[in-house]
């Protein structure tokens, strides 16, 4: 039970956060600033509630509201290995699952997991699994990561799990529908931006502590890092504006603008973060990279969390868009 941190995280029937896009992204940024692993969990929670808001029926929305009010954490577990989750039996009462998810962040803490499960014809079905009602096998040995250790992104085996029809969310294929899946990446962009702001703030504090105010090399490292941080913040803001415009008028032009803005933001924030990470490594030096300082863990967390699906493919889409008629704002 996470409690107050989850207040205001519900979404309306279009999947728009009740606190608005600005509030949503600000909170994601601030979660990333506090701790990237917490930011990862919070992002999954918000994502799940947007899916339930948009795809759920009245009963599912009511249930989600009650669950959030009692402080239950939600998550979205889509990533899977070759033996991913499949539906092996279905009758009027419900369905039976087999197979595993990997990178299931918050396994053990997430009480409502939105998962994808493939029907026999391979079409993916979303379901909200009440983790306190079913028996799964959680495998923490999967998670020996470079960073983001505290996100507990374990493997989870759903073999034999029985779900009610009322646990199924939306129609087959709904999870991947545009622009929500691709543009939803703006949420992790916001979390990454918060992590980047935090890293630069720590680096500034380190320079002050070491009395290196007049060291030109340290100052230029910090100055360039602040420019990169500002870049990440501006791109997160651009995502907020593109989402708000699409929410107001969901036409194809605004949808394309939203998609290309989020793709560009993913690429820009990844580059900014890698550049800051390299400068902080150099500037903090070996002493700064001892585990008694904050940098080692934060750098590992940031570099790990930057590894999102096919980040480098985002620039291909931005390029294709530029060759068409649409401008990148
Ligand atoms: C800390 C952490 C927590 C996570 N938590 C969750 C979670 O709770 N739920 C969840 O569902 N997922 C989660 N994930 C998984 C995440 O969403 C991505 O699926 C995953 O990080 C992408 O993995 P990857 O980098 O190995 O794969 P890829 O996206 O495959 O990238 C690896 C490389 O392969 C290249 N590549 C990819 N596809 C192709 C292709 N077709 N042809 C050629 N090259 C290609 C890419 O360009 C990239 O360079 C988490 C990941 C992390 C790091």
Name the bound molecules.
Answer: flavin-adenine dinucleotide
Main β-sheet, in a few words?
Answer: 4 strands, mixed
Radius of gyration from CA coordinates = 21 Å
Strand order of the largest sheet: 1-5-6-10
Q: Can you characterise this structure?
A:
- The chain has 329 residues and is α+β, with helices and mostly antiparallel strands.
- 51% of the residues lie in helices and 14% in strands.
- It has nine helices and ten strands.
- A four-stranded mixed sheet has the order 1-5-6-10, covered by helices on one side. The protein has a three-stranded antiparallel sheet with strand order 2-3-9, with no helix packed on it. It has a three-stranded antiparallel sheet with strand order 4-8-7, with no helix packed on it.
- The protein is globular, with a radius of gyration of 21 Å.
- The mean pLDDT is 95.
- Flavin-adenine dinucleotide is lined by residues 40, 44, 75-79, 103-105, 148, 151, 153, 304-305, 307-310, 312-313.
């Amino acid at each position: 039970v996470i409690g107050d941190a989850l207040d205001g995280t519900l979404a309306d029937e279009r999947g728009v956060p009740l606190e608005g896009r600005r509030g949503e992204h600000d909170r994601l940024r601030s979660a990333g600033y506090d701790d990237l692993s917490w930011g990862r969990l919070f992002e999954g929670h918000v994502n799940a509630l947007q899916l339930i808001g948009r795809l759920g029926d009245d009963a599912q929305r009511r249930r989600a509201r009650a669950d959030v009010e009692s402080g239950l954490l939600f998550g979205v577990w889509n990533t899977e290995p070759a033996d991913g989750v499949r539906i092996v039996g279905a009758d009027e009462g419900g369905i039976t699952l087999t197979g595993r998810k990997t990178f299931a962040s918050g396994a053990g803490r997430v009480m409502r997991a939105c998962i994808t499960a493939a029907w026999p014809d391979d079409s993916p079905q979303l379901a909200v699994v009440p983790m306190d009602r079913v028996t799964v096998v959680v495998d923490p040995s999967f998670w020996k990561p470079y960073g983001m250790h505290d996100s507990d992104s374990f493997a989870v085996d759903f073999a034999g799990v029985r779900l009610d029809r009322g646990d199924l969310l939306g129609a087959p294929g709904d999870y991947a529908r545009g622009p929500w899946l691709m543009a939803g990446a703006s949420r992790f962009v916001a979390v990454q931006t918060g992590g980047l702001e935090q890293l630069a703030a720590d680096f500034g504090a380190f320079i002050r502590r070491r009395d290196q105010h007049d060291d030109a090399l340290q100052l230029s490292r910090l100055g360039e890092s602040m420019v990169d941080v500002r870049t990440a913040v501006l791109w997160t803001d651009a995502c907020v504006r593109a989402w708000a415009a699409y929410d107001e008028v969901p036409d194809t032009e605004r949808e394309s603008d939203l998609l290309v803005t989020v793709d560009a933001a993913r690429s820009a924030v990844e580059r900014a973060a890698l550049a800051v990470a390299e400068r902080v490594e150099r500037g903090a030096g070996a002493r700064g990279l001892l585990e008694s300082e904050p940098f080692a863990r934060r750098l590992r967390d940031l570099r790990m969390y930057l590894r999102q699906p096919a980040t480098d493919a985002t620039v291909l889409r931005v390029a294709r868009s530029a060759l068409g008629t649409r401008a990148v704002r």
